[in-house]
Specification:
mainly alpha; 11 helices; about 0% strand
Length: about 260
């Protein structure tokens, strides 16, 4: 009973700092929340509210950049471009709802890619992207021209949505390989529809896309989290060992005491 109490106290003590940190919202986390709130407003057709949130994001971004948050030049460029596109989308009365969502989603994914290097949100697009690409392949192999163009355009639209985020989390060489294959398939559509050699590019691109998602969705826990887990587990094991040793020593003392009484 005493051992269980000691272990509980130690666990609570170790997790206390983590809980305190979790309750404190950092400036960059707040910016991430604002990007998500703006997207939710767009989904609800509340475009004016979304624009206000995006404008507020810009104000907060300027106030903390260089002071509390450090971004790379590429991150700043990509984030600025996607933010501008999102603002323009919410202010454009003629743009359709789906396109507004796509633009603001792109910005939302970029912000998350910066703040969440481990399994960022854009990796959740794996299923729709790979499904549409499978339809592109099927249409190419069957020679269905209309379906091929339609599904390829859908794929390009989805890929464009996550492309800025990919540029943040993925190395440049891997992106260049993807770009080369996608550009070839898009530029030489007639050949991809009719030539088996060109259709091999579809297979190669599919493999590269799958590798991209597989690498990003591997179980890559934050190293600091592993340190906490290992430290906590080690302390618990040591505590249990110490308590067990104390109990063993106490039992031995009782046996010795009982033995002396019996002799007396």
């Amino acid at each position: 009973m005493k051992a269980r109490f000691i272990v509980t106290v130690i666990i609570c003590f170790l997790l206390l700092p983590i809980s305190v940190i979790a309750n404190e919202t950092s400036p960059v986390d707040r910016l991430d929340q604002l990007s998500d709130e703006a997207l939710q407003m767009v989904k609800l057709h509340r475009y004016e509210d979304a624009k206000k949130l995006l404008d507020y994001f810009s104000e907060q971004f300027v106030s903390v950049t260089g002071k509390e948050i450090s971004f790379t030049a590429d991150e700043l460029r990509i984030l600025t471009i996607s933010h501008d596109e999102a603002v323009q989308a919410t202010a454009n009365a003629t743009m359709n709802h789906d396109e507004k969502i796509n633009r603001v989603t792109k910005f939302r994914l970029v912000m998350d890619a910066i703040t969440s290097p481990y399994q960022p949100l854009w990796t959740e697009m794996e299923s729709p992207i790979m499904t549409v690409f499978s339809e592109v392949k099927e249409a190419a192999y069957t020679g269905d021209k209309q379906q091929f163009h339609s599904t390829l355009n859908s794929f390009l639209s989805l890929y464009d949505m996550i492309y800025p985020s990919i540029k943040i989390n993925v190395d440049r060489e891997q992106i260049q390989r993807l770009d080369a294959k996608i550009d070839f398939i898009d530029k030489y559509r007639p050949q991809v529809l009719t030539e088996s050699a060109s259709q091999m590019e579809l297979e190669a691109l599919e493999a590269d896309l799958q590798l991209l998602f597989d690498e990003m969705t591997e179980d890559e826990a934050d190293p600091s989290l592993w340190w906490v887990i290992i430290s906590t587990g080690s302390i618990i094991i040591l505590t249990l060992s110490y308590v067990g040793w104390r109990k063993y020593k106490g039992d031995k003392e009782k046996e010795k005491s009982l033995s002396r009484r019996q002799k007396d």
